[in-house]
Amino acid sequence: MQEIILSVYAIAAFVVALVIVKTDRKSNNVGTKIENMMGAVFCMIVFYGCNFVTENQLIIKIVNSLSFFMLDFLVLFFLDYVLEFLEWQEKFSKVLWGILYVCIFLDGISLLCNPFSNDAFEYRMVSLGDMSLIEIMPKAAFHWHLILVTAIVFVAILFLVLKCALAPRIYWKRYTCIWFGLALAIVTNCVYFVKKFQLKIDVSIFAYVLLGILLYFNTFTYQSVVNREITRGVILDYLAEPILLFDYEGILADYTVHMKELFPEAALKTRQNQNGKPLTRAHFMEYAGIKEIDNLFEAKEFEHIMETKHGKRIFHCKYDCLKDKGKVVGSSFVFHDVTSLKEAYYALEQSITYDKLT
What we know:
- With 358 residues, this protein is α+β, with helices and mostly antiparallel strands.
- The protein has 10 helices and 7 strands.
- The chain has helices spanning 2-24, 29-49, 57-86, 94-117, 140-166, 176-193, 204-238, 265-270, 281-288, 339-353, and strands at 121-128, 131-138, 243-247, 252-255, 300-308, 311-324, 327-337.
- The strands form 2 sheets. It has a 5-stranded antiparallel beta sheet with strand order 4-3-7-6-5, covered by helices on one side. The chain has a two-stranded antiparallel sheet with strand order 1-2.
- It starts with a helix and ends in a 5-residue tail after the last helix.
């Protein structure tokens, strides 16, 4: 049993070390915050792992206190990461940081003195398979430690909620990984500290490992993907110009919301024509009566009159064949309504050509 548990913690420590090394290569401010967090997690694993390699009760008491002390720094570094990620460092003053460091210092004194005073928590021996472990019995002073950790996490949550409240809903996806990792860590801690589950090993450490991995993924992989998706969503949902995008085979890929004013909305939603076949560029050009394009592999601009929900409108149309290193990857239609401009130009032309008498 002892060998299995040590192996699991060794694997967790290796994963944490790997994340630290990979993050260090990124060399940016957000990455530094992740390194700090994972450094605290690594220390927690090492300290807690000492429970399984020694039978000296004093050493076990000391490393348990050190493990709880590292938890203070873990949540502090998490708050630092959240503020850096949200670009809100200036919203948390140096005075507040100073107060947090003082609180952690005082909590650290209480925890580090506990092996000799038992003021924060007491210990009792429990059996786990063929070995014995020290179980923590919290006392009043330990509740201060839990309150401090909870308060720091609550501040981080408060900033996340505030950011989501101020940001348009479409941007909430940026914070999915942080919320998920945070929820996982909180639930795991609750499970560990609620006595009815009778867990004799601190499983919350593994939640912190996963939280660090999620933050790494969130910072260096997920954000680039979700930002592209958000940008695409903003363009397609909020751009005023009707736009159609077709893939390399000429099949409808996407469109802006204003396109439904020029083309049957049902066909756009189902991506199929009235015969149930995939909606293609040829179907659209036939429906819109576009005959100005001679070569589908070349860009072209032209004016075209189309029947819309608001009657006949004049559009300046831009067709483009999208290529990557000479290979066709898609095509696009962009429509700009110039009806009002044409009418104004015609009215001006009329006023110049004919005076009031003629």
